Structures are given as structure tokens and as C-alpha cells.
Amino acid sequence: MSVTLSKSLKTELYRKAVHLSSLWMPPAVLLLNRNASIILFACLLGLNLIVERAACLKTPFIGTLFRRMFIKTLRHKEVCRKDFVPSGSVYILAAALIVSVCYTPKAAAAAMSIMLISDSCAAVFGKFWGSHRFENGKSAEGTLAFFVSAFLITAFFFPALPLALLGLISVLATAAEFFERELQIDDNFAIPVITGFILNLISL
After folding, report:
1. Are the CB atoms for 115 and 191 separated by under 8 Å?
2. Using CA of residue 158, residue 163, residue 165, residue 171, what is the dihedral sign?
């Protein structure tokens, strides 16, 4: 039996596939020394900003190529009209840079993994099975998927932590994603920075 996916669902799956393509970042944070990680993410962030700005200005070749490759991954607010609005990848790279500078490698890697995997789980579960919606548009099913995956990821990186602490960390990570609109901070940035801060405290 074939399953027909709506255009919006196909777009979301494509977005999350691109999102998950950044899963190379946690191993890089763990395997590279801190200075190498900082240089790597700083260079990628700078390059990303230049390319997206070129796309906003519709610069020949670079701007056109970027829009053709990633137009499906951009939300409406990120498709430039007059003002430059950075895409989610800018916030991901900025978060990777911040956690590499401020946190221990294990805390940074765990925080980035939660952002990449749990956010994707929340989006997919919410799209497929999200029948119970909150006022902010997020679903109970997607929120639960985020919490469970965040719990498992934290337990993988910090297996010695008691269940209560694992649960608390997962709740705070879930809150950073759930209250994105209230925080007025992109969740690609808020999730790893907030979660990483807590994980860093317990890993010192």
C-alpha cells in the first residue's frame, strides 16, 4: 500500500533531512581539540553568513545557487524580501561555536545532538501523529517525542546520572524548544546553549 505525502510534509521531511546532515558536528566537537573546533565553526559561520547575504541580494551565481539548493529548507520568514533574515543553519553554526568555546566537549556534543535529533523527532512526530495541539501550534505528540529522545541522548552521554536528573535536563531542553516563540530565540540556538550550560555544570 503506497502512502501519499502532502507537499508540506515532504517539505518538512526534506528540512529535517538537511537538519540531520549536521550530525557530524557532535563527533567533531568530541574528536577535535577545542581550538580546532572553534576555528572550524567560526569559519563555517562566516562563510554561511556571506553566502546567505549574497542570496538575499540575489548575487549572480552564489546567491542563485544557494536559493536553488536550499529554497525548500527555508521558512517563509527566511525567504528574503527586504530585510536579511538568517536561516536555521546560521543559528546551528553559531550554537556550535558558542558551545565549543564555553562548555566541555562532552556537554557540547550532547547539547548539539539533542538539538539536531530531538528537534527532528518533534517535527516528524508532530507532522505525522500530532493530533493534540497547543495554542502555540506545537503538538503534544511532538513535544513528547522531543522529551523522550532528549532523555535517551543525555543518558547515552552521561550514563551515570540519576533518572531524576536526566528527566530534569530533558524537561529543560524540551522547554527551550516548546517556548521558542516566548523566548524569541531560534530553537536551533536556544536548545544547545541552554542544555549545554546545564550539562556543563554536571560534567566539570
Report:
1. yes
2. positive
pLDDT by residue (tens digit) across 168-198? 999 999 999 999 888 888 999 999 999 999 9
Ranges of each domain in the chain? 7-203
pTM of the model: 0.82
d(CA 200, CA 204): 6
Nearest to 35 by CA among 46, 43, 47, 45: 43
| Grid coordinates given for 125 | 512526530
Backbone angles phi, psi at 72, to 5 degrees: -70, -20
Calculate the alpha carbon distances from 165 to 156, 162, 198, 199, 202 in Å: 14, 5, 10, 10, 10
